[in-house]
Amino acid sequence: MIGFIVLAVVMLAGAVGVVTLRQPVHAALSLVVTLLALAVTYVTLQAHFLAVIQVIVYAGAIMVLFLFVIMLLNVEGQAPPPHLRWLPPLAFATALLVAAGIAVTAFVDRAPLPAAARVWRCRAARPSRSAPCCSATTSSPSSSWGCCSSPASWGRSAWRSAAAAATPRGHARKAPPIRGSSVMARPAMAGGA
Amino acid sequence: MVPTPYYVALSALLLTIGAMGVLTRRSAIMVFLSVELMLNAANLAIVAYARQWSATGVEQALSGQAAVFIILAIAAAEVAVGLGILVAIFRNRVSTDVDELSEVRS
User: Fold this and answer.
1) Which residues contact B31 (CB under 8 A, 6 or more apart)?
2) Which three-class secondary structure string do you get for chain B?
3) Cβ contact (<8 Å) for B90 and A87?
4) What ipTM does the predicted assembly reach?
5) What structural domains does chain B harbor?
6) Coil, strand or helix at A137
């Protein structure tokens, strides 16, 4: 968690620098800082290949292209015209509002998983590839999800009972929405890092 | 393990900072830099959700990361085309101010 906070602070500082710095070269170098922090974040997200590609393609190729064009055009920073002084504070307030909305939605909203996603999750959770999944064996209501409820990654027991209640026979029935994101988010949040 | 909503919230912050840059900066290059910031914010959200999927299986995580890889490639192509257009505009009229680039409209 400490690492994530440090990375987030570096990333947001770089992003604010991109938006606020007057000189385009400074802004581009600030974007490089953001992209490198993003690459480290990819490593923490188990996406090592993407991290390498991020450094090579973004911080390497794209930013070199940007710097080349900036120095070719020889543009320098200019102050905003006086009749638009009110625009940056207004844009900042609006952006803050939108960011707060998205962030609150990310933490609060519990969107239902589609049926196909539930089947995927069940397939991935079965003990071996040859093991039957929920859609394969639907003999009785209790055993239809039985093969899926064994792994520890399954999360709370409420999910299990909801899943068993939702599919009386097989996966083809219309199921009420399952609280999918809470299943994945809550145990990890409780565990901490 | 940091939970997924934290990454999504960070991605939302990056996206809105980038949108703010698009709305407030006047030089076309700066607008372009802010667009790159927004693209990266979207990538971060996709990778975070891919890791959330990978709690149950590896193949879903790889499909999410493949989407990010395609977005990266398209962003690189887009930057090449966009900067080419920018240089052409600058050669015609010695300015990249987006407030003055309105002759298409009239």
Assistant:
1) B21, B22, B25, B98
2) CCCHHHHHHHHHHHHHHHHHHHHHCCEHHHHHHHHHHHHHHHHHHHHHHHHHHCCCCHHHHHHHHHHHHHHHHHHHHHHHHHHHHHHHHHHHCCCCECCCCCCCCC
3) no
4) 0.89
5) 4-92 (1.10.287.3510)
6) coil
Maximum distance among all Cα pairs of chain A, rounded to whole angstroms: 74
Q: Which residues contact A161 (CB under 8 A, 6 or more apart)?
A: none
**Residue B85, min C-alpha distance to chain A (Å):** 11
Q: What pTM did the predictor assign?
A: 0.65
Q: Do B8 and A102 touch (CB under 8 A)?
A: yes
Strand-pairing partners, residue A54, are none
Q: Are A160 and A121 in contact (CB under 8 A)?
A: no
Count of C-beta atoms within a 10 Å radius of residue B80: 13
Is A50 in Cβ contact with B16 (below 8 Å)? no
| Among the listed residues A127, A118, A100, A103, the one whose alpha carbon sits nearest the alpha carbon of residue A167 | A118
Query: Which residues of chain A are within 8 Å of residue B24 when distances are taken between CB atoms?
Result: 19, 80, 87-88, 91
**pLDDT tens sequence across A150-183:** 444 444 444 555 555 555 444 444 445 555 444 4
Concatenated DSSP letters of A154-187: G--HHHHHHHHHH-SSSS-S--PPPBHHHHHHHH
Chain A hits for B14, CB-CB cut-off 8 Å, are 11-12, 15, 34
Residues contacting residue A152 through CB under 8 Å, at least 6 positions apart: none
Which residues of B are less than 8 Å from A12 in CB distance? 10, 13-14, 17
